[in-house]
What does this fold into?
Amino acid sequence: MAIVLNPIDPVAFSVFGLPIRWYALAYIAGFIIGFYLFRYLTRNKNDEICLSKKQMDDFVTFIVLGVIIGGRLGYVLFYNLPFFIENPLEIFVIWHGGMSFHGGLLGVIIATFLFAWKNKFSDKSVPRNAFRMLDVLSVVAPIGIGLGRIANFINMEVMGRITNSPLGVVFVGGPEYPRHPSPLYEATLEGLVLFIIMWLLYTKTKLRKTPGAISGLLCVFYAIFRIFCEQFRQPDAQIGFLTSWGLTMGQMLSGIMFVVGIVIFTCAIRKE
It folds into this structure.
C-alpha cells in the first residue's frame, strides 16, 4: 500500500509579495552551514589553508557563483540543450528549475582553482592549494546536496519510477500511481551518508594531509550512490533512457565522475 501525502506548497513564505521558495532556502541554508563548517574545519592557525575574513568572504562568492553558473550551464548542456537553443533567454530564468549537480561540481572546481590562483595564501603550488580547499569542501558539499534533494521532494520534481513497493508515494491531487520518493533516497545517501563518510575521512584519517585524496573519494562515493539511486529515479522526459538497457544521463555522468575520482585519488596518493 502506497504512502499518501498532501502536497507541500513549494513557496515557504512571501516577503512584500515576493515568494520565497523552499528550493531557494535549501541553497541559502547549504551555503550558510557550509560557510561555518568550512571555517570550523580550517580553524587551526597552522593549517595551510587558513583564510582571512576577507579571503573567506571572497571564497564564498567564488563558490556561490561556481555552483549557480556551473549548475545551470550543466543542466542546459547535459539535459535540455535543444530547448535552450530555441529559447536562449530561458537560460537565465533559473527559478523555473533546472540545475545539474555535475555541472555545479565542475563550476566549484573551476572557481576554487581561480581563487587559489588569485590568492597565494601559502608557499605551495596553485593546484596543491586548490585541492586542499576542495578536500574541505568535500566534507561540506553533502549538506547542500541533501538539503537540495529534500527541496526536490517538496517541489514534487525528479520523482521516482512507478512502483508497487510500500515505499511508493502518492500526492493528493496528483497522479494516482505511486512512485519511488527518489529525492529522499538521494538525500539520505548523497547527503547524510556521504557527509558521515567524508567527515570521518577528513577528521579521523591522515588523508587530509594528502591534497586531492578526499576530493577524489568524494567523486567515487557520490558516483556510486548516484548510480544506485538512478535505478529508482524517473529519467527526464526530454531525454529518457540513453540506451535500450536503461542507462540514464545521471548514470553516465556519474560513471565519468567515478573514473575521474579514481584518477585524482591515485595521483594524490602518489603525490603527483
Q: What stands out?
A: The radius of gyration is 19 Å. The chain has one domain: 3-269. Residues 26 and 215 are 23 Å apart (CA to CA). Residues 3-269 form one domain.
